[in-house]
Amino acid sequence: MGGVDDDEPPSKRMKLSSGELRGLSNGSSLTEPVDGSLRDSMACSLPSEENEEMVGSRGIIKRVEFVRIIAKALYSLGYTKSGAHLEEESGIPLHSSVVSLFMNQILDGNWDESMLTLHKIGLPDENIVKSASFLILEQKFFELLDGERVMEALKTLRTEIVPLCINSSKVCELSSCIVSPSQSALVGCHSQGAVRAKSRSKLLEELQKLLPPTVMIPERRLEHLVEQALDLQRDACMFHNSLEGEMSLYTDHQCGKDKIPSRTLQILHESEFFYILPGESGLKKMTLTMNPNNVAWQLKEPNMLDESWKMGGLIRWCVMRTKGGCFLRLGVVDLEKKSFNIFISKGRGVKGGWSSMAETLWSLGVATGRRESQQDEAMLLKPILGKTFTEVVQLPRSKGKVVVRVEVREEDLSINLNKLVHCLVGFWNPSSARGDDLKSWGTQMAKIWGLKGKLGLAKLERGKFLLEFELLAEAKKALNYGKILVGGLLLRLEKWSPETGCLVEGEKRNEAWVRIVGLPVSLWDRDILRRVGEECGGFLAVDNQTEKLEELQWASILVKLNGEELPNVVEIWVEEVNVNGGVSLKHKLSGHQKPVSHVSWSPDDRQLLTCGVEEAVRCWDVSSGECLRIYEKAGVGLVSCGWSPDGKWVFAGITDRSICMWDLDGKELECWKGQRTLQISDLEIASNGNQIMSICKDTAILLFDREAKAEKFIEEDHTITSFSLSRDCRFLLVNLLNQEIHLWNIEGEAKFIAKYKGHKRERFIIRSCFGGFEEAFIASGSEDSQVYIWHKSSGELIEVLPGHSGSVNCVSWNPANPHMLASASDDRTIRIWGLNKINMKRKGTHPNGTHYCNGGT
Amino acid sequence: MGRLFIESLNGPKIFKCKCCKVDSASHDDIISKDFQGRYGRAYLFKNVIQFLPLPPSLQVNISLGPNEDRHLMSGLHTVNDIYCSSCQQILGWRYEKAYEESEKYKEGLFILEKERMLKEGW
Asked: CTLH domain location, by residue (chain A) (predicted)?
């Protein structure tokens, strides 16, 4: 602690605290605690309750400092009254009186007095005094210049600034300011544009930085301490995987494991997968198969042309059970490059549902994959039946008109007939008005007619409703009117007759209520139902209960029949919106003859490079799925590929142990002879475009700097199987043969940092990746079918995710969404992992979004 | 099956597994060409790919079977069969232990059958 804070304690202060102050500032012995134990005189660090000199449970915070910092914070927050009160109450002044005086003088511009006060503060270091004086005098100088008092400024310069003998270059600049006023604009530190002195508060700030912190508390010290604490908490938080704004001061920040993706959100079925790679924006994923086909999947984007759909093949299916029923969901793409989900309801009775779909597919001669095998199995199990699954399901269907006959006597009807005497039937033109707001019509009619009795209204059918009058006389009166204009609608009134609302024999009903069974509740929207109705022949109305979502077993709509058969199955194709980021197939890129071993996204995510094993490299356009270019080299095969970060060049590793570079037109630009390029080597290019990384020996990775023509090596003890680069290109994750993953820092000299263990690797190439918020986690696949996640800095294994049923070959963490992870496995699926949110479903009407469940693997 | 991690050999003349063309041994390691295997001629190698100096758990390209006692033409030996790691073909065997003094020199050496090999680089 430097300098003495105050010369004499002001009378206001408590005796005890002044004693503390003096004792502390002098560094001399404190008032001894009452228990008299022998302690070092500089016992600042040992807690002693009687003194109350230290605060906090550990007794390492000095009360005086604490209070002063708080007071400073209060002042800077603008609570000057509170600050002053705190000073008074605690008896600990923020600044000693001399310093306060000094500060006020600076702000008022009393330069000479402030100089005197400065000396009174009693700073030990002469240089500080001089520098502070210089600053003050400089300010004085500039203010004088501003005020056009040049002679005085000159005097200041000569008599006051120069004798300080410091900063002589500045002095020269200052003198040049006098000569040419415009110079002072160039002086730089007074960067307010024109020749203006800087503000005095800014001067105060600069002085604050100069003077020791005990004299003048630095600005925002308390905030700085709190931020430090938050940073420490965040660094200590092992599972921290969320964006910034979630740290609270109330509790220590501790993320639970719930911020790490640990729940399978989606399973994608296709052939085997070796490789997953996120695009730069994290929106896309890519997978490869062992077949000569190349499959690309995309996230959050409308799907485009897909050839296999033309053949009627299914791209993706899963069985969904929602409140609306059980149905099969298929993701397909149509010729117009739109993606759709087809929901085929399971169907009950009349509606064929799945059976009719299966039939259709069979008749098309298309293999239905799993479904067929299921049916085959079913058939195998019961060969005696001699009927297919579809036939069995369809048996109870009754299509023909069955007439039922009931005989009724007049007396049974008498009660109702009596009531109906009071009733009239109102007719209105249904096409002229939309809703049937019976209630408001009722009140209006009651008003118009001046009814004394009650009036009941009930809807009979479209365009007809029943009015029940309590008083017979009123019924008759209304009937006499014959017509009434209500709500802009002309109503015809008639007496009820047994024929009202009935079909005349032979008359063909031209309306029908259609029940849509198995409609997913997400599609229960009036507009969608209307469009369904239109397709059926003409939409007329939605049943009340459907509209209010009271009856969820089916959706009921009234449609016009145009003389055709009632539709049995409705297919609703929903354009893929992917509200919660579902992944779906975008393209199948075919063309490689050999299995595809390596994939690389272009930096702008619009193109994709794929490399076949010892074959050619193809460049594809992502949106159209076309192959733009094929890069080949005569006589040798290419093994890996990569983009330069500016997207202008394409690199490839070649079996003859060299690395080749092409530009986008296919012209070969450069070729480097490497020491050794393994057949399955990885190739990465750092973001500055200059560093190329490749496995050069079985135990070393070569980092080749193109510009500097320098080579750096990462040497390992064991064979390297694969590696991956972090997004900021500072770290390299190396997978080794001996089941370890090593982390290297490749900035400057390559340094080994950490190793991660626990997963299993015996025969295959397992890939790992960085991921999570600020890439604080490492994820890797494993041959024991699980995904392993470690914390990068501590090396601790945080999560092991079971779920796959085969070796997990590759994992990839979405760079844009720290809560999403994808893993690819030998069980021919890709799993998308997300957060383990409990209570995703809400009771009641709408489930939120589509609901994925395991497709029965 | 996932992508197997496979090494490749450096030397000019290499023996590869006939089915899957995975490198097995180098011509430089041949000690004798005068052996008989199950299917005809076989060569004695002092090392196959990556075998020495790595421990058996870190093998690539080939894997070893369990110890077996076999009566060969030259006597009783304890041998391990050598399998190609990608296609699981038996390529030969390794002498673990020999019970006759005259055969002791074979311990730790490898037999690869000529019929199961492809030659490359000749």
From this structure: 105-152
